[in-house]
Every structure is written in structure tokens, then in C-alpha cells.
Amino acid sequence: MAGRQLSGLDIAFLCLEGKTTPMHMGAVVIFDAPRVGRPKRLAALLAERAARIPRLRRRVTTTAFPLGGANWTDDTEFDARHHIHLHRLGELRDEDPLTAYAAEWIEQPLDLHRPPWSLHLVTGLPDNRFALLLKLHHAFTDGAGAFAVAAGLLDELPFTRTVLAATEPAEDERSSLEMVKAGIISTISDAGTGAGIAVAVLRAARPYPLPPLSAPNTSNRRLGFVRLDLADVRRIRSAHGGTANDVILAVLTGGLREWMINRGQRVDGRTLRALIPVSTRAREAGPAANQLSGYLCELPVHLEDPVSRLAEIHRCMNRNKAAGPLSGPGAVPILAQRIPAPVHRLATHVAGHAAGLLFDTVITNVPLPKCDLRLDGARLREIYPLVPLAPRSALGIAATVYRDSVHIGLQVNGDAVADTGSLRDAVVKSAAALYERSAST
Fold first, then answer.
1. Distance CA 417, CA 412 (A)
2. Which tens digit of pLDDT belongs to each residue from 190-220?
3. Model's pTM, two decimal places?
């Protein structure tokens, strides 16, 4: 199926995969009590819907030609039921049993010999609510594409079929040789852009990563969930300017500052550098599962004043936007897209472990529609996205705005960070401090 060939960036995520560096995204989604309290019935409904989504039936197969390449091919033994699991939370031995269970779930790599996704239906939550735990390999799609796929599992909305269709690459009738020739021509024509990004990356590289957010790789993970009031974010933005995303970054920066201080880390004269993924779906058409670039943003943890932190982040993000997402050191995904598959197979795993020379953490914002999402009539109440940890990184942060709240998912290296409670509290405290300054203006 030549028309479903993986792109260079898709293959890069496969090459980064390892037991201690699983490259899957995830989401913990909490729903109201179902109308019919039968988990097996709900699991059967999810399996039925998953079976109708072509993308969820495909697995990765390597190709001999082009060398090192890979295709998405239909799994002839596909059964959606094998990807859906039921779990009921037991006795409340943990302070937050859902978070504890989700941490064990997220640290397990996906089976890449099968379609790379997994869904856990978790019951036993307070007030008879239930949760869906969904993970998809990053080679499979990016954050925007993940929602497009997940939309097919939820109750149908007017846009459901449209977004699902957008995830399906058009069939390419060209032969493998013709596709290789086209790839060579594209690589040559894009060489100047790729070289420019490579030079920018080398210039931005630092001699060493910042110790608080670097750590040896481990399979151990811990999770934390933070929920902020969207009205507070809007009040802050109205008082001090910037975008909603700037405000969220400023809140996270304040939380990281206090967390570092509480851990005995020096913040004076320092910044943390975050890689901010940026979708290029509106700019670059094509069949690639991942259509991403990125910005590098210096998070001013050295600034004590929360309003000053927001202003500095706003200036940094404005500079990034003025330069555009297709150039600069944050455009590493664009560079990966232009690298041939054999080079990825040889070098990406090693190069990935040098990510800390370029950035300290990844902070992504996953877009969701402004509408009421439901599953079998049960209303979606909370959704916490999870971004994979970069190699040798202690922390990854994902956020999304849904209805009246900002939902933030924290994923940490469990060997480097004993618990996420202090970081969660620091983020909430940072939001309150910035809101207090806004209320006084």
C-alpha cells in the first residue's frame, strides 16, 4: 500500500521507541455516570465504533524498498476487542487510585506488531463516573490527529465524519520506484530549508541540560492532573495581554519556579527552555500522520513577579510567530520530516538522547472543539492529555481547553520525581498568584 507510507517524522518516532522511552501519547478522559451501568456493554460499543475507523486497523510493516521505510498496512487479524480492556478500581489504597492506575498504564509500551493503540475502560470512580484511558503511538498521529481519531469513538457529532475523513491519506498509485524518485527530488529541493534548520539547532544547542529537568531514562512514570478555571485565564489575559496559551505557559512557569525552589534548585539567572509543538496541518497538505513543527520558548523561572513572567513569555512567543513555524531551532520536526528513512534508522535513537541539549521539557496544547462531547449519552467532564517524555527528560506537560476549564496532564520520570503533588500544588498556586494580580488591576 504505497499510498500509506510513513513519513520521515513518523519513522523518527518509531526509531525513538524503547522500553524506557515509549513514544505514545495518551489521554485520561472522565465521564459522568452512564445511562446503563454495564461496562461490558460500553466496551462492546467502543469495539464496534473502533472497527469502523480504518486508521485503527492498521499496523506498521517495514519495507525493503525504499530501504528503511515503512508502510501502514491493514492487520488481517485485527479485532478491536483485543485493544480494549476493562478495569475496576479496587480498595482506595492510593490517595488517587485513578491516577495511580493510569501511571502504570501509560508506562507500558504499545505492541508495534499490532495496530499501535490501546483503550482501557475504568470504572469504580466516585459518583459512579467512569474513565477512558486512550493511548496512540506518536508515529500513528499527532495531537490534533489523535482527537480526530478519538472522535469516532464518541457519540457522533456533525463534524465527526469530516474529521475522520481528514485522517485518511489519499491512495497513491505511483510505484515504489516513482515514490523514491519523488522523495529524492523533494529532499534536494528542501535541502536549503533543512540546512537552515540544522544550523539554527546547532547554534541553539547548550553545553548541558538543566539538572532539575534531566534524568536517566526509566520505564517508571508518575502522573498528575491539574484543572484550572478558564474564566480565570481569560481574566488574566484581559488584564495583562497575551494569548490564552501565553497565560497557560506563564502559570506553568510560575509552578516550575516554585517546584524547583522547593527541591533546593537555584533559579536565579536561569530559564527553562520548552519545546512547544505547533501543528502545520493548515499549512502543509499531505498524507503524513504527523504534521508538526515547533517553537523554543525560554521560560523565565528566574523572574519572581508573575506579571513580568507573562510579559516575557508573550514577547518570546511573538518572536517565534513572527519567524514562523517552518524555520528556526524549534522546527526539529520539519528537519526530521526531510531526513531519509535509512538515516533515521541509523542515527535517530542516538540523536534523540541529545534532546536535552536543545530543550528541557515539552509543553503542548491539544486543540478540542467547543462543543459537548459524550459517550453513549454520558457527558465528558474532564480530559487530561499526556505527551511522551523526551529521552533523558524528567517532565512532559500537555494541556487542553475543554468547555469551562483548562486541563493539564503532567507526566514525570518516576525515578527522578518522587511524586507530582508538589508540582500540582505549585501550578495551582501560580495560577492563583497571577489571577490575584489581575483582580487588583
1. 7
2. 545 567 888 888 888 887 666 678 899 999 9
3. 0.91
